[in-house]
């Protein structure tokens, strides 16, 4: 028995091509639409058994809001998302919004049809390999790039980090020199190197940058006091 369905996708040609293919396989397509807004209203008004909802940006905030509306007003409508392989959080977001399935956008028509039938029957329609990939990524997350604070901290020597902390605390060159046991001329040189490496033009800018990026917190957590040096 054919499925009474709707195809909603931001790309009209994709929506119409998928709708035509499904019609040829005996399904009743109520509409193939590409609304920039109002997708939920359209589905709620037509009340299909299944809605195929295409998206090119599953990770974008709010992309699954139409599903929330559909499931609130037409809980009997099963929504199957068609999209690229997202991050695990993308898949989770689709199901959290109320989707019954998630299918790769390059899936064969037979795969889409199987997902529709499972969703209509109240089953979760997700390719096991897709789930396996999501779980693998969750269990073995890729290393995240360092944030700006960590990057800036790597530019500075331990001595320059201490100088930056003292600058942020408002110490002038004389106090920095006395606190570190170095000559004022050496302290002045350290300060200039810190400003140059951070790409700022003043001590105030350096202090503001360090506070904004969390550099000071990282420095406080990761370094022990250095012994005074002469010179």
UniProtKB/TrEMBL annotation:
Q: Which SUPFAM superfamilies match?
A: C-terminal effector domain of the bipartite response regulators, CheY-like
Q: Kindly indicate whether the keyword Transcription belongs to this entry.
A: yes
InterPro entries registered for this protein in UniProt:
CheY-like_superfamily, Sig_transdc_resp-reg_C-effctor, Sig_transdc_resp-reg_receiver, Tscrpt_reg_LuxR_C
Q: Which PROSITE patterns match?
A: HTH_LUXR_2, RESPONSE_REGULATORY
Alphabetical list of Pfam families matching this protein: GerE (PF00196)
- What region holds the HTH luxR-type domain? 149-214
For this UniProt record, the keywords arranged alphabetically read as follows: DNA-binding, Transcription, Transcription regulation
Residue limits of the Response regulatory domain?
4-120
- Superkingdom of the organism of origin: Bacteria
Q: Is Cell division there in the keyword field?
A: no
Q: What is this protein called?
A: Helix-turn-helix transcriptional regulator
């Amino acid at each position: 028995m054919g499925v009474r369905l709707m195809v909603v996708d931001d790309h009209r040609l994709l929506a119409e091509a998928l709708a035509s293919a499904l019609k040829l396989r005996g399904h009743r397509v109520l509409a193939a639409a590409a609304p920039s807004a109002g997708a939920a209203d359209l589905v709620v008004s037509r009340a299909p058994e299944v809605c195929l909802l295409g998206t090119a940006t599953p990770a974008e905030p709010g992309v699954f809001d139409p599903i929330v509306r559909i499931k609130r007003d037409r809980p009997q409508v099963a929504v199957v998302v068609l999209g690229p392989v997202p991050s695990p959080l993308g898949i989770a977001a689709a199901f959290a919004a109320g989707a019954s399935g998630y299918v790769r956008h390059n899936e064969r028509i037979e795969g889409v049809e199987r997902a529709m039938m499972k969703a209509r029957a109240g089953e979760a329609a997700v390719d096991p390999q897709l789930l396996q990939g999501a779980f693998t990524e969750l269990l073995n997350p890729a290393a995240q790039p360092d944030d700006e604070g960590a990057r800036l901290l790597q530019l500075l020597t331990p001595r320059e980090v201490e100088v930056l902390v003292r600058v942020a605390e408002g110490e002038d060159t004389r106090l920095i020199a006395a606190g570190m046991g170095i000559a004022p001329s050496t302290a002045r040189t350290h300060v200039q190197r810190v400003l140059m490496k951070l790409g700022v033009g003043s001590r105030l800018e350096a202090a503001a940058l360090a506070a904004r990026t969390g550099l000071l917190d990282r420095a406080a957590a990761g370094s022990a006091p250095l012994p005074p040096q002469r010179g």
